[in-house]
Design brief:
It contains 3 helices and 7 strands. The protein is an alpha+beta fold and 144 residues long. It has one domain: Nucleoside Triphosphate Pyrophosphohydrolase, CATH 3.90.79.10. Strands 1, 2, 3, 4, 5, 6 and 7 form a 7-stranded mixed sheet that branches.
Length: 144
């Protein structure tokens, strides 16, 4: 549940195999137009995973029937936004059908499917790059 200590958000690092692994990043239509996986603020009474699923549906038009969540991969990022602590939790999710269309909300102006290095370049933030690299290592480990 959302804590009173700071902001809390959740999202999904969505990937597809075509056959190489590609990650979905959305470009915001506000601020610095940064690139990020679908994510958003946890609403009262919502679990972190419920938030991640809802936000992915709202921001990218991808619903639970389009993805497989890898619940044994979870990445928690903690940083400050305008002087307030923020926690963002990401799960890894595979797109079942690589042709599933991405339908953006007005919060985003563009999306890209990117290989790891490109995704890291687009994301810009060190902690997000680390999350993508960890996801990639997880996906390329022999037991995944």
């Amino acid at each position: 549940m959302a804590s009173s200590k700071g902001l809390r958000a959740a999202g999904l690092i969505i990937f597809r195999r075509v056959p190489q692994i590609q990650y979905l990043l959305l470009q915001t239509s506000y601020g610095h137009h940064h690139w990020t996986p679908p994510k958003g603020h946890v609403d009262p009474g919502e679990s972190d995973l419920q938030t991640a699923l809802r936000e992915t549906q709202e921001e990218a038009g991808i619903s639970t029937e389009h993805i497989n969540i890898m619940e044994n991969f979870k990445k928690v990022l903690e940083y400050n936004v305008r002087g307030k602590p923020k926690t963002v939790i990401y799960w890894l999710a595979e797109l079942k059908n690589s042709d599933t269309p991405v339908v953006l909300s007005d919060e985003h102006q563009k999306y890209e499917w990117l290989g790891l290095e490109e995704a890291c370049r687009y994301s810009g933030y060190e902690d997000m790059q680390e999350a993508l690299r960890d996801a990639d290592s997880f996906l390329n480990s022999p037991n995944t």
